[in-house]
Amino acid sequence: GGLDRAVIYIDTESAFTAERLVEIAQHRFPNYFATEEKLIAMTNKVLVYQELTCDSVLKRIKSLEEEIISKNVKLIIVDSVASVVRKEFDTKRQGNLKERSNLLTKEASILKYLAEEFSIPVILTNQITTWLSDGLAVQADLLSPVDDLSLSEGSSRNGNWDSGYVTAALGNTWSHCVNTRLILQYLDSKTRQILVAKTPIAPLTSFLYIIENSGLVLQGKTTIK
């Protein structure tokens, strides 16, 4: 946790690793994290909860207010909001889409309240979907350069709308819930891009970055559209 404050990390994909967190800290701030005591103090401030069902995620979110106060939390991360929802809700079945939308709206409402009430950022990761020309949706891996997919909103795959296009998962309900949307995408095998696709406070902007032992490292110049 930065500034000697706590972080809540809700892990729905069993993807969190403390080893990677320590690696980033040691490489980004080698002088500060030169001792085991400093590393232990830092990791103790990161509160990780593994929630693998929709019910457990919602229950955890409902319990956050008390924990924010008691543990001086200054950042909430949900990674990812889409994972358990997409596993449990088959939107082709009657009633499932409405039920899923109600769940997402409820979660978003609570998290927005917490962000505003305590003036803390809430970060949620999503997944991506490739919509094919026949209306089928195929889940893609956000962390891998699968077929050089472009993740820019509304973009087509290989410039051909007939073959399909890539978009964020969870549909319109969720897209309207978020205040700021960042799209992470590959430009080549090493370089990636953060695209600020939606924000109420700044122009549309993009940043180039690479992933190193020290975590995310910005490259080159910022592009403002």
From TrEMBL:
<dbReference type="InterPro" id="IPR013632">
    <property type="entry name" value="Rad51_C"/>
</dbReference>
<keyword id="KW-0234">DNA repair</keyword>
<comment type="function">
    <text>Involved in the homologous recombination repair (HRR) pathway of double-stranded DNA breaks arising during DNA replication or induced by DNA-damaging agents. May promote the assembly of presynaptic RAD51 nucleoprotein filaments. Binds single-stranded DNA and double-stranded DNA and has DNA-dependent ATPase activity. Part of the RAD51 paralog protein complex BCDX2 which acts in the BRCA1-BRCA2-dependent HR pathway. Upon DNA damage, BCDX2 acts downstream of BRCA2 recruitment and upstream of RAD51 recruitment.</text>
</comment>
<keyword id="KW-0233">DNA recombination</keyword>
<keyword id="KW-0238">DNA-binding</keyword>
<keyword id="KW-0227">DNA damage</keyword>
<dbReference type="GO" id="GO:0005657">
    <property type="term" value="C:replication fork"/>
</dbReference>
<dbReference type="Pfam" id="PF08423">
    <property type="entry name" value="Rad51"/>
</dbReference>
<dbReference type="InterPro" id="IPR020588">
    <property type="entry name" value="RecA_ATP-bd"/>
</dbReference>
<protein>
    <recommendedName>
        <fullName>DNA repair protein RAD51 homolog 2</fullName>
    </recommendedName>
</protein>
<keyword id="KW-0067">ATP-binding</keyword>
<comment type="subunit">
    <text>Part of the BCDX2 complex consisting of RAD51B, RAD51C, RAD51D and XRCC2; the complex has a ring-like structure arranged into a flat disc around a central channel. The BCDX2 subcomplex RAD51B:RAD51C interacts with RAD51. Interacts with SWSAP1; involved in homologous recombination repair. Interacts with HELQ.</text>
</comment>
<keyword id="KW-0539">Nucleus</keyword>
<dbReference type="GO" id="GO:0005524">
    <property type="term" value="F:ATP binding"/>
</dbReference>
<dbReference type="GO" id="GO:0000400">
    <property type="term" value="F:four-way junction DNA binding"/>
</dbReference>
<dbReference type="GO" id="GO:0003697">
    <property type="term" value="F:single-stranded DNA binding"/>
</dbReference>
<dbReference type="InterPro" id="IPR030548">
    <property type="entry name" value="RAD51B"/>
</dbReference>
<dbReference type="InterPro" id="IPR027417">
    <property type="entry name" value="P-loop_NTPase"/>
</dbReference>
<dbReference type="GO" id="GO:0033063">
    <property type="term" value="C:Rad51B-Rad51C-Rad51D-XRCC2 complex"/>
</dbReference>
<dbReference type="GO" id="GO:0003690">
    <property type="term" value="F:double-stranded DNA binding"/>
</dbReference>
<keyword id="KW-0547">Nucleotide-binding</keyword>
<dbReference type="GO" id="GO:0140664">
    <property type="term" value="F:ATP-dependent DNA damage sensor activity"/>
</dbReference>
<comment type="similarity">
    <text>Belongs to the RecA family. RAD51 subfamily.</text>
</comment>
<dbReference type="GO" id="GO:0000724">
    <property type="term" value="P:double-strand break repair via homologous recombination"/>
</dbReference>
<feature type="domain" description="RecA family profile 1">
    <location>
        <begin position="1"/>
        <end position="128"/>
    </location>
</feature>
